[in-house]
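Entry type: protein chain
Record version: 2
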Amino acid sequence: MKYFSKMKGATRSPPPVGRSEILWSWIGAFFGIAPVAYLNYNLFAQSDLVFIIGSFGASAVLVYGAIRSPLAQPRNLIGGHVISAIIGVAAYKLFPNLMWLASPLAVATAIAAMHATRTLHPPGGATALIAVIGSDKIHALGYLYAIVPVGLGVLIMLIVALLVNNIPKNRRYPEFWF
């Protein structure tokens, strides 16, 4: 019974955020994803490069909507994604014909590595998984996946986060770098 009682939760939901916070989160997410999407669909559409991946959407929630979270800080954003990308590619290369094994191996190892390096960023788990289950274009990138789209994409999102999140007087980003 004690085990199941832990599932009730320990605190109440946080209070709602104000309209200004919602607006700035929207502006940040729009202008953070826009350049990455533009590059993907206009400059790289005819190439073998992919510039946008699904985990960037989850990162946008953190770096534009939960800017004070330790999980949203630059160290976590960049380190979590890049480390996870490398691990995901390695898992795919080790077990290309055993996707059922490569998938959990990539995610679990990425989480462990992010913990060990103090770069925990939940979207990193998706970045590792995308390296395994992604398209032929993703697989063809190999370890370049960790640089483009992952490294360069999150660097663009970080620059936008630094610019947009510091416009309003009541917002500050980042809380810490290292």
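Comment: The chain has a mean pLDDT of 95.
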